[in-house]
């Protein structure tokens, strides 16, 4: 662990030193420019990696018309934080699994990263992650949203996400009886 | 790039809402739900979500693979009748109490399992034996210290096997109720030790989800 930490810091120092050359500029749908580490962008986003490799990166700002400035800021923020984070022991796979989910649990900083977002910002970010082919960020954001549904009744889920119930009363009652088991506690 | 000079801003009145997410992303979210029960409840919030679940066979098989058979009853009180399609229960009844258990993997391959205090042994049919019913020992899992601790193996007591089905062995130990996957070689703790293990038996429910368009895909094999 000590060794890893030292390595992480050295990596960070190197990045800061090379920041001037090693970044790409991304432009949001509303014309704002953001700089992100080229290395992190290529590592975390398959789409950006492809653009970098294919030389379709524009020094004046690569247009990402599908992504608004708030979401792009979060994407860039995530890339930079990720570049500086040290993988925790939790990510090293163990021979024993206590749950069936093959998805890796978010790390503490990733949890905090999505926890501070409003619903709207979270939904925008999940779309941006999907668009940019950022598997890990997609994982973290989807995990966060699924947690908001966990252990809740349909009514409570509707309330959390402000969803309009478009089932009829009779329909719902019928389904509810058929699937009664799904309404026990998890 | 020229377009940059005319930024296309979202109208301020448009609020991003979960219903604006495409079905693909919605399904990615649903995949991470902890159980089939949560998925059902999510699908019952609105028609669009139900459609997102019902319209994708790929999603259903992934969800199934990630969640396996839902374990629903415990505490000695069967909440649901076990839904069996094969003769497994009879075979199991004949074999229960014996040292060896006959079961099958998810893909239907028969296998023999033996659980001991030292490890779990698995035999598979020997395809090279020219149709003869020979079994060869394929895998031996010697417990690691971590596994032994999870299974609460003390003084080489053999864990109590309560059920074997669909490639999973269900064990009751002092540590609680544990399942062991014969394919992934993973132990999973299902219930914590606040109850006495003797009262446990896993009940399975067929994927009942006619309502979600899943009628053709019964979970339990």
From TrEMBL, chain A:
Residues 23-84 form the SKP1 component POZ domain. Keywords: Ubl conjugation pathway. Pfam families: Skp1, Skp1_POZ. Residues 136-182 form the SKP1 component dimerisation domain. Residues 1-21 are annotated as: Disordered. SMART domains: Skp1. Pathway: Protein modification; protein ubiquitination. Signal peptide: none annotated. GO terms for biological process: jasmonic acid mediated signaling pathway; protein ubiquitination; ubiquitin-dependent protein catabolic process. The keyword Aminoacyl-tRNA synthetase does not apply. Part of a SCF (SKP1-cullin-F-box) protein ligase complex. Involved in ubiquitination and subsequent proteasomal degradation of target proteins. Together with CUL1, RBX1 and a F-box protein, it forms a SCF E3 ubiquitin ligase complex. The functional specificity of this complex depends on the type of F-box protein. In the SCF complex, it serves as an adapter that links the F-box protein to CUL1. This is SKP1-like protein.
UniProtKB/TrEMBL annotation, chain B:
InterPro entries: F-box-like_dom_sf (IPR036047), F-box_dom (IPR001810). Pfam families: F-box-like. SMART domains: FBOX. Residues 15-62 form the F-box domain. CDD domains: F-box_AtTIR1-like (cd22159). Transmembrane segments: none annotated. Gene3D superfamilies: 1.20.1280.50. It comes from the Eukaryota. This is F-box domain-containing protein. It comes from Digitaria exilis.
